[in-house]
Fold each of these.
Amino acid sequence: MITRRLALAAPALLPAAPLRAQAWPGGQTVSLVMPYSPGGSTDVLGRILTQGLAERLGGTFILEHRPGATTTLGARHVARARPDGLTLLLGTVATFTLAPFAVRNIGYDPVADFEHLTMLAETGFVLVAHPRTPSVPALVEAARARPGALSYATWGVGSTAHVLMLDFCRRTGTEMLHVPFNGSPPALTETIAGRTDAMFSVVAPARAQIEAGRLAGLAVPGPARLAALPQVPTVEEVGAGLAGMRSAGWFSLQAPAGTPPAILARLTEAAVASFRTPEALQRLAEMGFHETPPGPAPLRARIAEELALHRDLLARAGVRPEG
């Protein structure tokens, strides 16, 4: 079901500001398609973006939730929309570099069917384990001693948690058993109970468990420690062949291919500015998000890099598109 939530509209603006004197664009409502159900961190990102765009460009921006099929339903809708700046996509790593290898006939080309404006934020992940495994070296040693005996939990085949652990095993030369669950909460529950040995989790649900000692926080992928988990080392610090590994999750802004360059330029500038305010940066840090490089070039390069990486990782794991 499609749901709509009204974002903050900009107040009346003085004629002295020419770029903001006319509502964006032409006084019409702009839909930011969210390929997830309402609620959670994705809605926080959506509100930062819709409010920021409205304040900087004028007019009304709303969130339009179109969940389903590993985010491809919402992406397909935007790819087929008129390229007039009135329909945008809050894109994700799943949309562009995971779904092509997990969903059969996604209905769009992840590169050619979109204008890729900018990354907005990168999801913080943390490698956690049952406390009986207190460090990355201990996990690697145990996995090498008993190939295939240790298990890792995820929230599904082809998920970000899955590709992160596939990359971990590839880099460390280990083999572990994949145990997918229907969502992150049961995966964390089973790891806390010790019925699975480890997993990559997003920061928010794992943080309290690490601080309470119910999970061991082993490492965060990326070059810098997370403000939300300053006590957990980076993969660069722990070594074990993991240097250079980074988060597999990010969010971005897309428009349909063929959207006029003038519209794209204004959207990109306003979107980047919306995620650089002190309030936005503090909120993102609290949720365990990283800043990302602005503009189309870094986003396009990230998509190209991860399409190749995820194709290889999922092929090695024998994952075939479904649906």
Note: The chain has twelve helices and twelve strands.
Amino acid sequence: MPCSSCWALRLPLAMVMTMAKVSELFEVRYGVTLELNALEKDPFGINFVSRTAKNNGVAARVKLLDCVEPNPVGSISVAGGGSVMESFLQPEPYYSGFHLFCLVPHEPMTDAQKLYYCTCLRANKYRFNYGRQANRTLRDLVVPELADIPAWVDSASVSLYDGADAPATAEAVPVLNPEKWVSFKFSTLFDIRKGKRLTKADMLPGTVPFIGATDSNNGFTAFIGQPAIHEAGTITVNYNGNGVAEAYYQPVPYWATDDINVLYPRFTLSPARALFIATVIRMEKYRFSYGRKWHLERMKESTIKLPVTADGNPDWQYMEIYIKALPFSSQL
């Protein structure tokens, strides 16, 4: 995506875009600067946007302050430090932390156009790091003029995921009582198998997901042409690499690298149950590191604590109900 004058100069003449400084398209404000630890958290309050790359920048919801006016709805938040240049369109009024900018368009823009500019701004991330923040230079970064935004931008549907945050059921989220949960050996609940090494040089082009030892994107790192070696409806757990104990539900057949243990359930594993279990597995992350890996034999002897029924068996129904009562569970 063209986000600098140098990039634009490489385009054919008919495609060259007119560039403009960020400050020519937006009023660049230093956001409402507050400290999250000094605010009262409120699940029904106002968004607090920080310099994180996750969750649209939202770190928490906090109680609205009578004397502090929030940043305006429809503005773009830009991290000047931390996860520098992470940029998000904010659909609600919000408070913000230190070194976070608020961009308000000088002219009316559609949400699709603002999202396009968020992408342009993120494309400048390579210019910065923790030692070189964007605080002084954000206003002077160049992006395409509004009139030169590609036509496909406004043809994209930004409402595609409207309602995605709805829960699958109208039931209240059940109360968690971890102190009453019971430990089960992984080997009694799962048949645990290892992944298999496959180098980038040996990967063929194709459509089979390759699950690597990463801490994001559900473990997915590439599509390959080799046949899948693991079945759908299983859980992958990193025992090595980036993010030991990161656990993901895999809904389609896939290839897992050799830094991963694959859990084949000895019970009926629905997506909701899998997400509950994967979350509990991640809570064990603190036990492991590069020096103490969660290898196959160690995992077989490890235990996982789960809610139980009156007869002492895992309460699969409770796990199902809990997940389906959460926001976004309608998308499972």
Note: The chain has two domains: 5-155, 178-331.
Amino acid sequence: MKAAIVGGGLMGVTLAYHLARAGHAVNIYERSPNIGGLATYLDYHGVRVDRFYHTILSSDMTMQTLIRETGVEDRLRFTETKQGFYDSGNLYPFNTPKDFMTFPPLNLFQRFRLALQVIYAQFERDAAKMDTIPVEQWLSRVSGRGVVEKVWRPLLRAKFDAEAVDVPATYIWSRLRRMMSTRQGVTSKEMMCYLIGGYFTLIEALAKHCADMGVALSTNTPVERVNIENGRAVGVRVGGEDIAADIVIATVPSPYIAELIPGGPQDYRDLLAKQQYLGVMCPLMILNKPLTPYYVLNITDPRIPFTAVVETTNLIAPEHVGGHHLIYLPKYLSPNSEIATWPDERVREEWMRYFKQMFPDFDESSVVEFLVQRARYVEPLRPMGTTNEIPQIQSPIPGMFVANTVMLYPDLSNGEAVTSLVKRVIAVVLGQGGPSA
């Protein structure tokens, strides 16, 4: 079987790896100069630095299996990480049971209700039920309004910009279940891991195995359309040339796929085009010294434009990124956000103004670089009660399959969810998993 894969991110390259291992001929077409998608890197003075921050949890077994299979397990490192909260000008740890039960922004009763919410999430297993409950209603019912205001709303704001009002409880429920899976032992330490060189270390290893198995990987090569004859996908058009394929797998964002199938069913094109995504503005601040002890510092103040301080060099050893200290200051953006139009200079001015309010003793001379990173299609947004609108793996067009982050729901967008989805896609493509997701 000859397969054409549209998109050379983690999803596309992992699909190619599994298909090639099953004995099929594969071509990957990537429009960017490099593979990797959102998981690619910056070359900063000869050092690989992630464009956007990524984690691998100690419980992410699909990712870890792939890391072992591709021979880069020796580059995997496990680290105990810490998180905190910034509230009313103060930084508070939020890691151990003691931190939990003495968290100053909450009173004793609120702390108890917060703990109850976390425990409740671990015992709730019904994703379909969670999809029918508004997230703030679910949180308020168990945690109460005070906890929602001080803890949950900042986390929702961090993830959804102004769009959190219509999202289902699934998003916080999934996050709680995923993050608690990293807690180890009676001390409840949070263990994460990373690859030296970032996610791209795995993507590069996958690409090498693919090349050894005959996969053709073309960068700077946008697919112009999926060719459809007699209602069936028969290949792709690239650079004005029609290239035949037995199957086409599209891994790019759904609105792009809608544009690639002008000959496809109009109702299906409309379904793809209406899929909602948040973008991200994520400045990377490179410092010459550490800032805090926290991997993630959550922010409760809604006036601050960025929604967390992510110091990835409290997970990644600084010597693995050239001795630098890396601070990411993300903000997810709705499609109509005015902030998305700001030039880099204004982003730096606004971000630094609030950053110095948070850290009044911060020495700006420690800033080596301030690099503004942006992406339009980052986090799929699933309105409540719309799971029936999630595209299926097998599209209505015979010979064409879809595998993108919209289909991860109810899981969050991360490497573990992506590589787990790939296994489902491979089962469907090879006829082992039925006609749909």
Note: The longest strand covers residues 367-381.
Amino acid sequence: MTQQTQPTKQADHTLATSEAFPITLPGTRDQVQMWAHPHDVEAAALQQLRNIASLPWVVGVRVMPDVHLGKGATVGSVIAMSQAVAPAAVGVDIGCGMAAVKTTLRLEDLPDDLHPLRSQIERAVPVGFAGHQRPLDGAALVGGEWRGFWDGFDELDRAVADQEKKARQQLGSLGGGNHFIEVCADDDGAIWVMLHSGSRGIGNLLAQAHMARAATLPHNADLPDRDLAVFLAGTPEMTAYRRDLFWAQDYALRNRTVMMALVQRVVTEHFAARGLEVGWGESIQCHHNYVAEETYDGIDVLVTRKGAIRAGSGDLGLIPGSMGTGSYVVRGLGNEASYCSASHGAGRRMSRNQARKRFTEADLAAQTAGVECRKDAGVVDEIPAAYKDLDAVIAAQSDLVEVVARLTTLLCVKG
């Protein structure tokens, strides 16, 4: 198979390098440092950032180059809080993130028609709201300890008490929206498998339950945005949220691990039928909607990354673009000015509704030319032009990460 030409890129207003950053967001003293130009960010997102910075528990906010408006908190933001955490700053897809594995396959090993392979992946991995008809045996697929993990379900918020069966069935499933499974080629012609997913329905329900509870607490009564309601350290509400949060983050990681095992099995069998043996490298995994305990300038903080990855020194990370525009494998440089963080992707330049109104199926087909993927009305909101230019996003954070590999999308499965 020959490598396909990428779709024409949509130029951003400013193709700046990291030498221009960070920039202090006007009106916030020095709490908000941006790896993006404020004039390239929608006004509503800038106001969200100002609202976040005004919270008394916030130590600092760092803004990644893929920044855009989110619910409650801005996507592409890194928020360091002392003795508090805001559930909306994590979002409803707790633990959402990426996984990728390099194979021993080469570009020339791939057939010209990748549709049969896409169909086989779609049969193996449920997409959208679907789950497996029977729960998968995680231990048999990927090893590890599972009994204790599922025993922990009984300790979760009672709002999800009746959801265990569904949670078990959705383990190893993709979901919808911007989640995907891809087969890619790097610039050296090596083939990679990459996927993007999170904690599915169970993470969403847990997040909503805790966000609603936080909004009722007296200390959140006068916030500039009730979606930014927080839990305070040392309270039963904080203890309960952190318990559920870390369980959902673990679920998301296990979900990606199981899903990757399913995809690897499909790819292995597909190429075995063609007389080719497939070898697999080590998996790269990274959350980009999560909370971690970290220390900066001698201060212990709870760092919330909503649409951002950890980029500590040597940390491998994954920064995807959109359908047809490829992705990057990166290595963190440990820049503490960004709270050791980097972007989680290209970031949307327009909302889903805007994309559906502006673009057609014909536009989608043109912008994903050469990529084996859905090209129907159901995924028009994921069209590449709805996202920022990925190369510009990478260039803006060259002081945060170094590029390990650039991946070109060949096949993409969407929910």
Note: The longest strand covers residues 401-414.
